[in-house]
Amino acid sequence: MICTGAILGPMKQIFLLCACLLVLRVSPAMAQVADPDIVVVRVCEYINTVELAISRGTGKTEYVQFKNGMNQKALMASSEGYYNALLKLYQQGYLLQGTFTSAASPNVSNTTLLFVKAPKP
Predict the structure, then answer these.
(1) 3-state secondary structure at position 9
(2) Full-prediction pTM beyond 0.70?
């Protein structure tokens, strides 16, 4: 029998398709996207202070405290405290993904902020 180009062409295409599928099967990590980086910020607002626990994972938590209150000086201090803490996250490419609040007492407000950095393709 003589092998003609009409038969050889489709065979090459099938072989190439099988080779591509085999590569994806052997190394599926190449076809997947990495998990996003997550930062959890726990906010506790008291009458006179605000406390932030900024966590990037187990053993990687930073504690920040600044003044809070109802007078102009305290309001400015708390605004600047939030600004400085959250600006660092935005500069590092994190975006606010969600917020969670928990039951608070009359003198305490608790909020959790979830920041996510989208994975690079």
Answers:
(1) helix
(2) no
